[in-house]
Amino acid sequence: MKILIDGKGCECQPGQNVLDVATENGIDIPTLCFNKLISDIRPAGCRMCIVEVLAGGRPGLESSCTLPVTDGLSVSTKSQAVYNERRELIELLLSEHEQDCRNCAISGDCNFAKLCRDYDVDGVPVCSECPNQKEGCLLSRGVLCLGPITYANCNAFCTRKGDPCESCFSVLSNEDVLKFGIRAFAKAGFTKEDIIEAAKVFSYDRVKVLEKLIIKEELR
Amino acid sequence: MSIKTIEDLDEMAKIGMKNLESNRPKIIFGQATCGIAAGANKLVDFTKEYLGYLQETGIDPEIVSVGCIGMCFAEPIVDIQLPGKPRITYENVDANKMKRIIDEHLLNQRLVREYAMGQLSEELSEVEHGRLKYSWTYEAAPSLKELPFLSRQVRIALRNCGIIDPESIEQYVARGGYRSAFKALKYLKPQGVIDEVKGSGLRGRGGAGFTTGLKWQFARNAEGDQKYVICNADEGDPGAYMDRGILEGDPHSVIEGMLIGGYAIGATVGYVYIRAEYPLAIKRLKKAIERAKEYNILGENIMGSDFSFDLKILEGAGAFVCGEETALIASIEGKRGEPKPRPPFPANSGLFKKPSNVNNVETWANVPMVLEKGARWFQNIGTEKSKGTKVFSLVGKIQRSGLVEIPMGTKMKDIIYDIGGGMQKGRTFKAVQTGGPSGGCIPAKHLDVEVDYENLDALGSIVGSGGMVAMDEDTCMVDIARYFLDFCAEESCGQCTPCRVGTTRMLGILNRISQGGGSLKDVELLKRLSTQVRDGSLCALGGTSPNPIMTTMDYFMDEYEQHILNKKCPASVCAALFRTPCQDTCPAGTDVPAHLQLIAEKRFGEAYQLQREDNPFPAVCGRVCDHPCEARCQRGMLDESVSVMAMHRYCADKVFEGKAGYMPATSMLEPTGNKVAVVGGGPSGLTAAYFLKRLGHEVTIYEKESELGGMLNWGIPPYRLPRDVLKREIQMILDLGIDVELETAVGKDIKFDDLMEEYDGIYLGIGAQKDVPLNLENEDLPQVLNGMELLRKMNLGEEVDIGDRLLVIGGGNVSVDVARTAKRLGCKKVIVAYRREELDMPAYPEEISEAKKEGIEFYFLVSPERIIKEDGKATGVVFRKMQMDEFTRWGRRKPVPVEYETVTIMADNIVTAIGQQVEDTFYEKSEMVINYRHRIDVDKYTMETSMPKVFAGGDAVLGPATLIEAVAHGKNAARQMDIKLVGRDTLSELQEKTPYEYSMEIPDNEHKIQRATLQTIPPKERENNFNEVVMCLDDECAIRESKRCLRCDIIEEEDLL
């Protein structure tokens, strides 16, 4: 049997669910409540794995972990409806989440934080919550602080103490904000290498994007 | 005894019929939960005791208990049945009535006409067997079938409710019960049963409306060694109780339905999942199961066939979500009641992972009738896609609440008005909420909708399990949305994110709005959250939970805006947004409780000045206000509302008599140096000038007439508003130091552009004085007069020739005023013709009733069609008869012409008074936006026109409005202009300047005290003069009236906690 995921034909067995087929075929569908170790229990509660059924079933959003494969099924994992719904879900979860990532044991290896970044939830740079106004911005004093390009919500613990931001919350995904940050670095006299080196520590996955943008902005 | 053949059933039916029509007289009590709540049990005790005293009379009636017949508004209901005669239904019976009923009806065979609703002389329902028929009927009582509540009903699911004793299986059999089951087991194959049900088009009555036959087919086709049928009796919607009614009134119908269903799909075990809050239903169902087992209707080899079926009852613990079938199944299995994702559907893997079929109580109750009378019969009832009937529980602020079973496709307005009898206390219908927390609100403009699954879905609501909550103008739609969402947030099982967090967040936003902290961004956020929660939720509870929000936002957005922008709850419900309902309702915001308290303390000067803080016309308002405050007075719930308007007048008259006592000066703010112009010296202009002056601005009023007062001066006849009272209050305003330019028409005597240059702000209170034309031929004849123009001439004392017969066309205050004035001027016959009904007349009801006393004739439901011209003179009008028809989008019925029916009214003169529009045209050259109704377009909240620094209000914006609305516009415009000029809201500073202290003790609020009635001078003394008709209250009466105020403004400390 074959089903279409994002237009790609995927081989599958009857009885399988869409999420399993997608994983086998290397298509990423985010999940929070699904656990590979106890994969027979599927509460479909987090709803993060929703996909849009395009054909071969009841049209609309369905949780892929419980959606059995049927002949002629075609789903999209990336449609605008799916993106909007997932983004809303993340926002809702974030609204009841204690955002104390600095004191969290899995900080840095957190699926949820990654989802927040992927779906651009709360994409505000650290500068927006930097209270270090007395002595002025660290950048203006010649210290490389990654505040302008880093996700906020950490309460800007480091900058408050006068230390530069090391981007523990990863580099933002919103390119407009990034461009603004890159210009600020350029003004303060930092080079491409400086920025990339600093960003590599916590946000290795974003370095490529950053590099591209820096080249675009013609920063040497 | 066990039933084996059809003869056995016949035998049983005979016994049952004998029971139903016994030779002993019977007293029948409606003892469902609704009847018991209304006091039926106590009534039974009383009756037994009373009958004990009557033993020697030899009367020995049987006391029978039946279920609910659906007329919950009339509970407790008692039926009396004498042998061979139909039952007489008595409504709202209490011990005294009961005594009389027993004495007269039971002992003397004479029915008590006053208490009797009707007689059960014809069959109410669709049953085939055991139909009630009587050759002898009472003459004095109508048949129940003729009552508006029952006449439109088609009773299938409710066929036996209120008729038979629910605990008697014989009576059920007598009404054709268990015949369908017998037929199915003996003569039909399971597939045949399914085909019949499929063919009937019966759809699930629990809410979603899935085709029942198809569902059964899935369960039948599924492979499994054991299958189950389940009855969903977990009825949790607020305001819905159809399932309870059926289970309490006719439990056997559900058992029979499940038996047939079990046979069709091959299930040998059935479960009834019923909520534990229905103890009576559980008791009756248990009893019914026991009785059925006795007769081998349940158990092994049922009725001689080889089919076995067992029925079990499971009590739910009251979780709303357990009404969802997968959650219900989990609950029966002993797990947490949480929904599971579908697929797999219960038909394939349901209870204990076996194929199962879940149907609602009402669906099961329908099944035996489908089999008995056939699919074709069932198909003929209802609409194309929704077949059969649906039971609705009609509740809310409606006259006749109860259970109604109507064919699908019945119009909503028929349900609300014909069956339900309209709103209580003659209030205006606002919306009807269907489908419980998962449903939506349907506004008045959609009252014409034909109720079925598809149509309600298209309106954003659902049929749901059948709750129907009617709401009137006193219902706040934001609060309704908040209430239902609160319910959903509470009942969410918490499994999936959108429902668990989403409903809580939406509730937070709604709470914020209802507490006055909302912003327009919240509306956007709510909309977005609603769609995402709807699309993303796991089960229908979450998926439908935003429906109340989405529909109220669709249909009642202005109420959300009022809450957000104006910080006002139009229905006076959201407690954080107002102090007292009366103050909130008064457009000008008069502090009524304080005013009344000061009068009670006989501090008239202070009471008068306190009212003038918000309204410069206390004495005028005491005479001609339409007092919306009184309609919402909380005293009205205890006995009658406080006569606030009469108190305004009493206080003002005391002040004018010189008995004011201490009178604080009118507070003023320091001069600001700004100059403002007020165009138009009517009530709204004068009010604006009054407040602007007090706020420290230099004010000049431009009036084109020679006197100030506008409509108050020449629109209201002196017998309603004596001129000295008006002049005095206008003078008090001018005494603050306001410049007046009389006989200066802006646009003619002075250019509008000059005003724009000279002043820092301009308020246009130019009114609407031009009569709206009828647009009929011959309207320009001299005998056809304009209402406004005539009234003005009459009020200014000019000579008018109106002849002996005057015909006034229109139903507003102007037409009634013209009529009453004409009568006073000696006109012999005055006729008012209006195209709607009396209730719809915009004129004040008091005025209409006074007019009738003075001998003015009214014709309703006539619309002018042609003006008769004879010898170059207009001599009469041909009217087309009208009838009230469909609801328009404003929620008002529209009159439509009746064909071939006209009325001709002859008259010497004809007056047209069908409305007014703005006359002045000076601004038409400027960039002012004038809307299609010839009124000035302003921002609803800031009163700004499309031109900078120009504000407008009163009739020029609203069209013909009330005095208090004009005052409110003037006040609000002054506040908004001040904010523009000074940069902050100084009006509240101004109003706090004079302190008023008065008693804050809660008065006696337990005893009923009659409302003071206003005395009028007798109609004879009114002829040929313009003396004031309404007299002032006397001192004793007035002080007592002022003390009737319940003082809603006092907040007890425990309320705050």
The CATH first-level class of the largest domain in chain B comes to Alpha Beta
Largest beta-sheet details of chain A: 5 strands, mixed
Estimate the helix proportion of chain B, in percent: 25-40%
Could you please say which CATH topology of the largest domain in chain B applies here? Rossmann fold
Please mark out the parts of chain A with pLDDT under 50 across 5 or more consecutive residues, or reply none. Answer: none
The CATH architecture of the largest domain in chain B is: 3-Layer(aba) Sandwich
Largest sheet of chain B at a glance? 5 strands, mixed
Question: What is the total number of structural domains of chain B?
Answer: 6
Instruction: Give the uncertain stretches of chain B in residue-range form.
Output: none
Lateral arrangement of strands in the main beta sheet of chain B: 2-1-3-4-5
Distance between the termini of chain B: 65 Å
Q: Count the E strands of chain A.
A: 5
Number of helices of chain B: 42
Task: Give the amount of beta strand of chain A, in percent.
Answer: 5-15%
Largest interface: A-B, 22 and 18 residues
Number of folding domains of chain A? Answer: 2
The CATH homologous superfamily of the largest domain in chain B is termed: NADH-ubiquinone oxidoreductase 51kDa subunit
Provide a count of the helices of chain A. 7
Overall pLDDT of chain B, averaged? Answer: 89
Radius of gyration of chain B: 34 Å
Query: Oligomer, anyone?
Result: heterodimer
